[in-house]
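Sample pair:
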Amino acid sequence: MNDRDTIFALSSGRPPAAIAVVRMSGSQARAGVEAMIRRVPEPRRAALAKIRNSAGDVLDEGLVLWFPGPKSETGEDMAELHLHGGRAVISAVLAALGQLPGFRPAEAGEFTRRAFANGRLDLTAVEGLADLIYAETEAQRRQAYRQLKGLLGQQAEAWRARLIEALALVEASIDFSDEADVPEHLLAPALEIARTLRQEIADALADNRRGERLRDGLVVAIAGPPNVGKSSLLNRIARREAAIVSPYAGTTRDVIEVHLDLDGFPVTLMDTAGIRETDDPIEREGVRRALARAAGADLVLWVVEAAIPPVAVDVPVGSGKSSHVWIVRNKLDLLDQAAGSGPSGSGHLECEFGTMAPRAFGTSALTGVGLDEILSALSGYAKAFFDQGEPALVTRERHRAAMGETMEALGRAISEGAGGREDIVAEELRLAARGLGRLTGRVEVDDILDVIFRDFCIGK
């Protein structure tokens, strides 16, 4: 990849579409605009123009925008061609750009990578942009936008500035201890700064990983014995036939996942194999996976038949955390038929489990009775899980690792400072500042750039 090349790509959605946006960025972007429309518009003002190829043939008529660097998204000279979104138009324009000297198609994420290289975005903002592109729910969008606008990056830079202040105090104490105008006992205020920063970073990390969980979604497992309507319940909640439904026990062998948006919060709903003793090796593996996924879920909907008395329900998952296991008594329609009456007993139920009783609901996956209350409860659970006042500062494991590295270095600096070892304190403070620098991309990030940018789309 040659950073001196001028890159171009389709930056809008897949054709055909009403409008297509083709972007170019690099030192030859101005020449590219002149070659395509025979002039250069005023900076940052749309101009209507005929777009031509090198032979002078008119390919389309559209809007052209010119963004001279460094005041552009990438920090380089940039231009955009807003075209009609037909496949033939786009293909012809991209082919014409490819024939210009010094031009080549962009790699995935290369526009954003150049913005990072030119200081237009720090690494946390780049990750926020990636999350914004792939956000599926309102809560994910809000979190991603906050990161894009510098929620973590600005905080990390503020921490880093205070660390440098502490480091300057220690180094002044080491290098100029014999100077009359240098105050004595500079180590104490430096260590106080280190203690305060360490506590602030520890507080930011003590968030139950809400940021990472919001990116991935709340995990809810539907589990229970075979043939109690787990797959039917999944299909009813998902409003589509996501799982195969059969009257035969053991139909579901593997875990089926459905991604939902519940009142703006992301939820991954899993249908698992029926849990029972079996000699079938394939079904036995399905049961093992079901138990493992249920144990790792944030919430388990343990489904049983409504005819089973509450005191007879045995829940082998949840590790005793009954608040994370809800009982769902399904097939209320069969009770109604047996009683010869209309729907009854639906909605919230009180199960006799004592003080540690899990919440219990009654429903019919066949008719939908009681489903609204389950969905309402799931939405409330997701809101309580994610929406806990202050927005999460940490949204990726990489953030957590860099901040943990910084906190450990600060802890070592504080310990060494108690013994008056100023040289070791200075080195640990430098390591702490380096950890924050890795967080924002200031130092040594070449090893992680490819990982971050590999999921970007072409043209972004």
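The CA atoms of residues 83 and 333 lie 57 Å apart.
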